[in-house]
Design a protein that fits this description.
The chain is mostly beta strands. It is 12% helix and 34% strand.
């Protein structure tokens, strides 16, 4: 509705200008403008990812890396047939100017809306678990889908946020006592990510399934019915 009002206003200005100048017809326009853009390390980007646990580091490009395959004490990996928890593994901080809802995806099906993309940590055979944040003895899951709705990568490569109506207040904003609000970060806010990994007797590790995905989107930019777009 707001977009329609804006287009109508712009249209009325164009009509008025055409009347005063006689004609506004043209065949084509090509205009170039300067753009200011910069990239930053994970720790200094708009969505800051900061290594805080022993299993998290940053590589030479300043990107977050999680390492579960060894230690300085000559350990070679996770115990088989066990559940291993890593608390305060890394921190997600909102350094942008608007609220964002965040998620951490650990499997291909969870991260991609159509279930087709790149392999993730839990796509390895014999490995499962969950990602969460724990505060005061209570934890809330941080996966891309759940009671709050979903936040996933669509087939156009964009982050698509769909918040369930029950998570919103009468103004259409995220309600304060909801799951969605527990994973929404205001500018300057952060949360610590905890990870629990369950292994079978003989897990199989595929080197291509070596990633996690951190997703974030502004709650008021819900585009569940958006289609392809551009």
């Amino acid at each position: 509705m707001q977009r329609r009002k804006m287009l109508a206003a712009l249209g009325s200005v164009a009509v008025g200008g055409a009347t005063a100048v006689s004609t506004g017809a043209f065949t084509s326009v090509q205009a170039q403008r300067s753009v200011n853009i910069a990239t930053a390390t994970d720790a200094n980007a708009f969505l800051s990812l900061q290594a805080t646990g022993d299993r998290a580091t940053t590589d030479s490009n300043g990107q977050l890396v999680l390492d579960f395959d060894g230690s300085s004490e000559e350990a070679q990996g996770l115990n088989p047939d066990a559940r291993t928890a890593f608390t305060d593994l890394f921190k997600i901080e909102n350094r942008g100017n608007n609220n964002v809802l965040v998620a951490v995806g650990l499997s291909e099906d969870d991260v991609y809306a159509d279930g087709s993309g790149q392999g993730h940590l839990f796509d390895n055979q014999g490995i499962s678990g969950f990602v969460y944040k724990e505060e005061g003895g209570n934890g809330v899951g941080l996966g891309p889908t759940g009671g709050f709705g979903s936040i996933q990568i669509d087939n156009g490569g964009r982050v698509d946020l769909d918040i369930n109506d029950g998570q919103l207040n009468g103004s259409g904003e995220v309600a304060s006592d909801t799951i969605a609000n527990q994973r929404t970060l205001a500018p300057g806010d952060s949360l610590s990510v905890d990870l629990s990994i369950k292994t079978s007797d003989n897990p199989t590790i595929n080197e291509e399934n070596n990633r996690i995905s951190v997703l974030a989107a502004e709650p008021n930019s819900d585009r569940a019915d958006s289609g392809e777009g551009s």
